[in-house]
Amino acid sequence: MRVVQFSDSFIPIMDGVGNVVYRYAQNIAQKGHECYVVAPMTDTGFRGKYPFEIVDYNGIPLWRMKSYRVGAPFLDAHCQKRLNMISADIVHVHSPFIAGQAGVSFAQKRRLPIVGTFHSKYYNDFLQITGVELLAKVGVKYVVDFYEKCTEVWAVSESSAQTLRSYGYKGDIRVMPNGTDIRAASDGGEAAVSEKYGLGDKPVLLFVGQINRKKNIARILEAAAGLQSDFRLVLAGQGPHEKELRRLADELGLGEKAIFTGHISDPDILDSLYKRAQLFVFPSLYDTSGLVVREAAAMGTPSVVVRGSAAAECITDGENGLLCEDNSGDLARVMNVALNDTRRLAEMGERAKSTIPIPWSELVDDVLERYGEIAAEAEKERAKNPKKKKKKKDRDKEKGKGKEKDGDKDRAEDREKDADTDKD
């Protein structure tokens, strides 16, 4: 199988989408298939360490989110030449924007099937950026139009499938959940992160993700301010609202209890933070998958999430995680109860570890199986409706006809000139 993935974000920016694309590419290649990732150019380090191939294009930092880059693959001659060298069986697009449009164009020119994964609540994104509801609705129409061009549409959860349908998409949607890396934290990792971030022996509450209002981080800070026990709240990530949320933490009197780590690119440090935490706190209503909840579970750490959210789909309240209502008072209540019964919390974490994570390797087996079915169906369709190639003599005839038409036009103009001269 030869797979080409298109994404607007990729390593080293390991946000939710970039992480998924990386894990797909890594596991597809490790299973003996060809995989290419088309994305904006970033500092990926030594590329020989990756089992897949990166085809990148020039880009510039995105306004207000400098770690992300945006570019035009259509205008990058080197990128286009590289793409023209690739023989593919299927295209997988992970964004409806520039990279995704390039993927659709690439596939349509070659009559290849397109899988499009719906990852994000784009209406919320558009509304946050523009502040205008009408423009957000126009943006959503654009998103629906994009996914209607795909051969098959995937969503990462039932909740995200419902979101896309609410935007007006009428086609079928296949739920293809995200996987998780199943691995152990490094020896001495917990002690190392405790020292690095000044955690001491205090209970740790952890959030991992973009430091963005849409992640409901203010709710975490407000709830933490109402806790009676001593603790450390670690917020790992970067984002456009970090200064604003730091100010809120100070206003709420959290002081040294709230620790903003900035971007963490080292997976060992992140794994060790997951392992060191007593409770992972993720009240986001924006996320469509809750990938970080699965990552926390893989390290044996239970999560508290909002009831009815996408992240709550894998949680049974009180068994392998905790649920709360979408308000700071109820979140504080749940966190207080949890921190006062650390033994129960540890048992819950073990159940989370055994029930929530899906190994990426197993998930990608399902992905490859479905890729094969889609590619086979597309091959049958191409065989039924072969693309007609014009013979050389037909092309020459068309050129000749064009020349004849041009000659007729010239002669007609000459006759008009002669007629005008006769009138004079």
List the helices and strands and how they pair.
Blueprint lengths: L1 E5 L9 H15 L3 E7 L12 E5 L1 E4 L2 E7 L5 H8 L5 E4 L4 H13 L3 E5 L3 H9 L2 H15 L4 E4 L2 H9 L6 E3 L13 H8 L7 E5 L8 H9 L6 E5 L5 H10 L6 E5 L4 H10 L2 E4 L8 H8 L4 E4 L15 E3 L3 H12 L2 H14 L4 H25 L7 H32 L1
Parallel strand pairs: 1-2, 1-6, 2-3, 6-7, 7-8, 8-9, 10-11, 10-13, 11-12, 13-14, 14-15
Antiparallel strand pairs: 4-5
Helix pairs in contact: 1-14, 4-5, 7-10, 8-12, 11-13
Summarize this structure briefly.
Helices cover 46% and strands 17% of the residues. The protein has 15 helices and 15 strands. The termini are far apart.
Describe the fold and architecture.
The strands form 3 sheets. The chain has a 7-stranded parallel β-sheet, with helices on both faces. It is built from 15 helices and 15 strands. It starts with a strand and ends with a helix. The protein is elongated, with a radius of gyration of 27 Å. It has 2 domains: 2-179 and 360-383, Glycogen Phosphorylase B (Rossmann fold, 3-Layer(aba) Sandwich), CATH 3.40.50; 189-355, Glycogen Phosphorylase B (Rossmann fold), CATH 3.40.50. The chain is α/β, with parallel strands linked by helices.
Name of the CATH class of the largest domain: Alpha Beta
Q: Can you tell me the overall shape?
A: elongated
**Uncertain regions: pLDDT < 50 for 5+ in a row?**
none
Number of domains in the coordinates? 2
Compute the average pLDDT: 89
Largest sheet: 7 strands, parallel
CATH 4th-level superfamily of the largest domain: Glycogen Phosphorylase B
Number of helices: 15
- Percent of sequence in beta strands: 15-25%
Helix content: 40-55%
Query: Major sheet: order of its strands?
Result: 3-2-1-6-7-8-9
Named CATH architecture of the largest domain? 3-Layer(aba) Sandwich
Q: Determine Rg (CA atoms, Å).
A: 27 Å
Going by helix content, strand content and strand pairing, the class is alpha/beta
